[in-house]
Each structure stands twice: as C-alpha cells, then as structure tokens.
Design brief:
heterotrimer, A mainly alpha, B alpha/beta, C mainly alpha, B: alpha/beta, 4-stranded mixed beta sheet, 3-stranded antiparallel beta sheet, 18 helices, 13 strands
Chain lengths: 297, 438, 283
Amino acid sequence: MKIHCKKKSNAAAFLFMLPAVIAVLFILVYPIIYGVCMGFTNRLFSYEAFSFIGIGNFVDISKDPLFFKAFKNTLKMVSCLVFFNTLIGFVLALLLNSSERYIGFFRTMFFMPWILPSAVVAFSFRWLYNDYYGLINHMLLRLGIIEAAVNPLAVENLVWPGVVIPSVWFSYPFVMLVMSAALKSIDRNVIDAARIDGASAWQIFREITMPSLRPTLVMLVILQIIWEFSSFDMIYLLTRGGPADSTLTLSLYIFKRAFEYKQIGYACALATVMFAVLSVFIFIYFRLSQRGDKDEG
Amino acid sequence: MSRSKRALLAIILIFTMLLSLTGCSKTAGGVDGGKKEEVTINFSYPPYGYDYEKEMAFWEKHISEFEKANPGIKVEFTVESWDNVYTKWDQALETGETPDLGYDCPITAVDYALQDKVLPVTDLVEKLGGAKAFNEGMQAFSANGEWYGVPHGDASMVLIYRKDILKAAGYDNPPATWDELVEIAQATNKDGVSGFGFFTGDGYQSSQVLTGLMMAAGGNMIDKDGNVALDSPENLKALELVDKLYNQMKVVPESTVTWEHSDPANAIGLGKVAMSVTWGGYGTLLKDMFPEEYENIGFAKLPNGPSGHSGSWSGTGGFFIFKDAKHPEEAKKFVEFMSKPELSKEWAMISGNVSPFVDITNDPELTKHEWYRAMQEQSPTQITLGWGHDIIPGDYMCDTYFAQAMADVTVNKKTPQEALTKLHQMVEKTIQEANAKK
Amino acid sequence: MKARVRKRGVKSMKYAGKFMALAAIAFIVWLPIIVAVVTSFKTRSEIVTAVPSLLPESLNWNNYVRLFRVMKFGDYLMNSALVAGFTAVISLFVSSLAAYALVWLEFRGKNAFIALNLFVYIFPQILLAIPLFLMCYGLGLLDTRFALVLTYMSFILPFGIWMLKNYFQTISRELVEAALIDGCNYFQCLIHVVLPVCLPVLATVLTYSFVLGWNEYMYANILIKSDSMRTVAIGVQTLVGNHGADFGLLTAAAVVMIIPVIIFFIAVQRLFVGGLTMGSLKE
C-alpha cells in the first residue's frame, strides 16, 4: 500500500508542480539569462550590432558615482517603504479584525489606493503638490502656515517625504490584505480559551497573535524588500529621479541607462549586479530560516 | 487515478480555451485574412497634436474618406503612447513585423534610414513638388540626397509671454534679443511673478530648450567635417545664459525642475511667470484652458542670440515607411492623400502645427493666429540633433546628455564650462560607438 | 445592575470611537482618490487654475462621453476583463496545486524550487521586456491575450505559492491524512478539504492576481500590437504621455478603469468573512 502510494505521490507531485514550473521557467530561462548575458556586451538600443566586452561594464559600474548614489537611495527608499507599509498595513489589519457590520465597508475603503493605476496616483499627487495650482499649497497658504508656495518634488529637502508618502499610500493595502487573511487564520477557540482564563488583550496579542503571525510577517517583509528594490513606477512618474538625482533609485537608473542613454549593455550589467545582491540576500535568508527550522524541529 | 487524469484533462481544457482566445485575436491582428485583393496598411502614430479628441476625429474622418476613395485598401490606425513608442518600433524592427507607416520627427526617420530600416520616399516628395515645395526646415527629413520622410506638420518651440505683465513693467514688445530677454526678465521678476521659466530638469524637454539656445548662440553640434563641436565658446554662451538666469538673477522658479509638457503654458496662463518657452501649438488650447486670460497671452519668435539669429528645437512631424512594410505602395498612396492642400490646412489648425507646404503656409486663415505666425517665423531656425551637419548615426541618442548639461548648470551647480566639457565628451563617445557599429 | 449599564455605555463609546477613527483614516486615505474622481468632472480651465478647489462647479459628464468617443474603451474593458479574470483563476489554480505539492507531497528539489521562485522577482522587469517580447514572437504568441495571462501568471506564482504554502502549513496534517485515507487521491483532497478552509487566503491571491492583470501596462504595451487587443491599462497610459495633458480625460478613464476592480473586490469580500475555522482537529 505504501509503495503504491509513493508512486502515485511522485506522479501527482509531477503533475501538480508542472504548470508552476513551466510558468517560472518561461520567465526565468530565456529572459533572465538573456538579460544577464547582455550585461557582458556593449549593446546600444536599436542597434543590432554589438560585441562582447567581457567584464568591461562591471568595471565601469565600480567606478560609477551615480551607481553608488542610486544604490544608497534604493536602500533608503526600501527601508522607509517596508517600514511604513508594514506598520500601517499591520495596524489597519488589526483595526479591521473584528466583526462589526461596517468593517467590510471600511476594508474596501482602505484597500482602494492599491487599485488605482500608478499613473493616476502619480498624477493626483503631482496635482496636489503643485505650487501653482495644487490644493495643498493653496490650503497651507490660506491657513498662513507657509509664506510662499513650494513644490516638494522640486526641493531636495522635501522630495523624500514627497515621494515616500504616495508610495506608502499606494502599497500599504497589500500588507493590510495579507495580514487580514493571516489574522483570520488564527484559531478563535484558542483566543477564546485564553480570554476565559483571564488573559488581557495585550497578553493575548503577545503570546498568541504575534507568534502565529510571525511567518506571515517575515514573508511579507522579505517580499516587500524584493519588490521595492525593483519598484520603479512611482518614482519615475513623480520625479523621474528627482532634483539632482536625489531620488534616483537603482531600477530608475537602470531604466535611464537602457531607454534614455540607450546603453542596454550597461543597463543589463547594472541589473545583473542588482540581481546578484538580492540573490545573496535571498540565500542568506533561506540559510537562516532553514537553520531556524532545524532548531525548532 | 482516473480522477487525476480528469484533473489533467481540465488543465488541458483550460489551455485550449485560452488558445482559442488567441485564435480569435489573430484574424484581427492586421494580417491579411486571405481576402482577395484587400490590403491593410498599418499606421503607427504617436500623438502629435494637443487636443486628443479633435486629433482622433481628424484621422478617423480622413481615413474613412481614403478608404472610400480606394476600395480594397484599409488603414489600421494605432495610436501609440510617447512613453514607449520607440521601444515598440525597435522591437518591431527586430522581429521584422513592423507597421507600414510610422510618424515622427526628422531625426527618427533619418536615423532609421541610416540603419537601413526605412524606405526612401524621394519619389513621393517629388510628386508633391520636391524640396522647394516645402518650408526650409523640412530639409531635415533628407539625408545623402534622398528623402526619408514626408513632412506633415512644421513645429518649433517659441516664446510664450504675458502681454499684460510685460506692459505693466513698461515693455510693449516681447524681447527680440538675449539682452532684452535678460532685461525684461529682471524687470518683471517681482510680486510673486518669475521673469522667465523654462524646463530645467534632466528630462528630454530641457535638451530641447538648451539646443535652441546653443543654435541661437551660433554654436554647432557637429562641424562640417563631421566632428563633434560642442565645446565651443558659442555653445558656452548658451550655458552661461542659463547660469545667469537661474543662479545669478534667480528669475527662474525652482519648480521648473519638475515641469513637464503643459506646465509652461500653465504657468503663463496662471500669471506666475512672465515669459516661457513652449510649443506654439498650445495656442489652440488656450481658450479652453484659460478662458479669462487667453487674450493676455502672446506668442513670438524666440529672441536672437549673439549669432544674430534665433534657434529652436524642431517638433516637425512627418510620415515614414518602414523597410519591412508589407504594402509600401499603398502606404505612399495614403500619405499622398493626407498631403492634399485642404487637409494640410485643416491639420494645421487641429494639431497646432504649421503647414509644411510653402504654398499653403501663408494662408491668411492660418496666419491670423499669433501662435501660428510665431512658429512660422521660427521655422527657418529649427534644428534637430546633429545640427551643423547631416544627421549621423548616434545623434538621437544624445538627447539625455544635453538635458544633463542643463541640469548640471541649474540644480547640480556645476560651472557652465564643466557642464559643456562633460557634454562634449559624452556625445563624442556615443557617436563614436554608434558609428563603429555600421 | 448599575455596573452592567456602565459597561455597556463604555462599550458603545469605544464602538463610536473606533468608528470615528476609521472614518477619519478613510477620509485621509481617500483624498487623492477624491481628487482624481472630482477632476474627471471638471472642465479644462477648472483643473489648472490659480485658485484650486476640490469640487467642480458643476457635474460635467463631458469627459466620460469623450472618452468612449476618442478610444475604443469598451473593447479595452472587455479585453482587460478577460485577461484579469483568467489570470486570477488560473494563477490561483496553479498556485494551489504547487503549494499542495510543496507542503504534503514528497519529492526532490523542493527547496530549490522555492528559492528559484523568488528569483523571478529580483531581475528588473523593464529589462525582461525585450527578451520576453522575442520569446513570444518566436512562439507566435504576440498580440494575444494568452501571452499576457501567461506572463502575469509567472509573476504572480512566487507570491501565490508562498502565500498558500505558508497557510497550508498551518492546517493540521491529520485533517489532510484523514481525507487521503478515504481514497488515495490528492486532487480531491485539495479541492474539497484544503481549499474551503483557506478562503481568506484564496481571496487574497485572487485579488492580487486580478488587480495585477487589470492594472499592468508595461508588458501589455509590449506584447499587444493591435488596437482591438488592448487593455484599459494601455488606454489610460496612452493618455498620460500626451502633450495636451488632458487631465479630465485621464481621470475619467481612471475612474472607469477602477470600477470593475471595486466590484470584484466587493464580491470577493465575503470570502474574507467566511472560511470555516476547521483549521485544527481538536479531538
């Protein structure tokens, strides 16, 4: 019986995994390998002829001040975004984790920002921020809080908050969504039992809720770090790299190099560096989590 | 086991359903469905006008007229987005599945031609009257004795200004020279109004402003021998002017770093800026945008620089035919149809561009508009990258370096000479690389 | 007696307080959306004016009328619905299959697959566009909705699989084994036993997939050539890069674009509330 099931198990495993494997290979095998290989060439956009230049691009990258600036900016942005997204998403998910009648309505309301196309989000904020016809400046001037209209996207001191706010606004709903689902998965019986035993809300949160949410939280943070690293839409639409490259992130820099400077080879090399950095990160995470599993197991 | 098989069947079923979705799409894909004699030409068009609705109405109306007059020919009209039109065209070229017709400025058409990706249309241009039938600036569509684009709309950046603000400062006329520009900018820069606003960030629009200034200063991008000639005293004057206006006199608003597209027109309409640089075509929108102010808004040719003449970036649009076009002859027919005098006149008004035909361009119905006259006057001094010489491979890739030079002087606080030297080096390197690939 | 009344009073105050807090947050969150919606009803001169106001002078439906005149927005909506719908359903299906296999079936290469999955996300999407285009061309998939569904699915899977896998791991093994003993069939087990317990997670993956399929424009722009195959995301994008910057038209398009997604999300809401909590077998 056992051997029979093992065979079925292998066959089933194959069938079950097949579509997913195909899809992943679809993206991974040709496109990414193509991209990485391009990094070793000096290909220019729309010119077919190109030659392999070995590690030439990578040497240039190590001497490129903009690369380091972009990298620093990316780290800054990723940490800001992941922190605020997770905080706000988590808090809102907690607030929404009850069963009052109006909760469903608010859940839809809070989820809205994510549904908007990024172009419209960027447009709305640019309109709000504008120093000539924007609402925010108008209000602040009227209330006497500021003396002259200022467009935060044009000023280096203000551009980071100016960019982080729309980005967080746009992406916290995802965290909220995932945390909501995770909260729902916590067994109510356990919580009720604890409450009957006289545990306070804080104790329940600390001893029951948080531990069961930990895997989800960790997964969310990892995914967000990876996503925000390559995120490009919002910054491009808001500042295109910001006054004096102050909001230039790595993915934006890659875009510029590829489509504005037309240096596809160099851009692919940059992408490969980013790929390598994140690979190391993923590798370290998996090593740590495996070791963690071994400890618990 | 049979149930797992059923699962597999379900998966296969779903995939075949999807494939049938693709099947439905193929016939609509603009490929000849095997119908006898019916030919479909693909026309790929990025929006060259300012009023999307009117533009679309124009094309649709005349496309159906053309189809009626030419039974057996259909035109599939695809509007592209400026954000990715070049990516699309380049990818299409890589696979050989290109549209028949494209539409863009001279530098695109000629650059493609130099890479042998676009067909010559000299015969069509001759049919329409030859080079002398077109405005001077339209020659940009030709290279090495052949024409590669058929001009359709002549456009340049011009000066846009507030008549009332200038008058209040004591000036009845817009600046005719750089000295006057500086003077008026200074005089009008008060009470919440900035003297002169223009694109100062590192987007491509800044490169358009800077190249115009360089031309007006008497500089070239490429000299007659084909060498990059950017690091010259003339071009330096252009960057020095920017430095003076932005850093020393501070008559340029800080927010210009974020300006895009219609922001100069907006700034003028709102009275926040006394003068600016933008496409004359915005003249067609002013009544809608600023119903109360539009009479105070004026257009003029850009002021003359130290060279004694003006200079402006060319936004001229024209048709070009891809080399892999399936139906080039029918495409040419369509272009000929769209180049009829009445249509040219109509297009000028709708698109906010000047008619490229010498015979039509002075039509009183067109020249009665100030924005039109300003662009007309500007037309002979319009340039594209590579100015000073024929367009050569790699020119169009240098857009970003000019924009960078502008940003270097304004926000990055570099000296004009530093910015210029860097610009020269980057452009030289790019052109070398592009030419090495021939 | 008095104590109980007081408790009830305090509770209803907490109720009201929470409601007020949520309402305030909702207002702040909705401000930019209100800006976008309201702009769609404004005339050109109202959008760019020295004295901006939130509300338009009158409810001007002109932009919406023009929108459908100016582009084949109806066709685009249909295409988007097909693409997003199929993407959502198929992604969920494939993700749950893979997650099931990863959690309860034994085979080699599990960890390798999980790690490989994440690699899909770490190469910038913009550069993948060119090779993806060439690949689709080679497979004859250009200009088809299927190509989009396949592409989107590839990007959703890592998230979907990871999400479902995490959740499946919290389901008790005994429950699964009990089902299996009744007939050694994994597929039925998945459909009838595992999934019904996971409704909130299913809703999450469905929503994520649908929104991605609906809003995504970069690959849609690249893989779709003809106008009749375009999705709404491309339609809106075409309006963004326009000289005239017709904000009214753009926001009208955006409003039309998000309504189906809101409807989808409301429909899926119920799955969040549902979900049998048979998560653990406490015998």
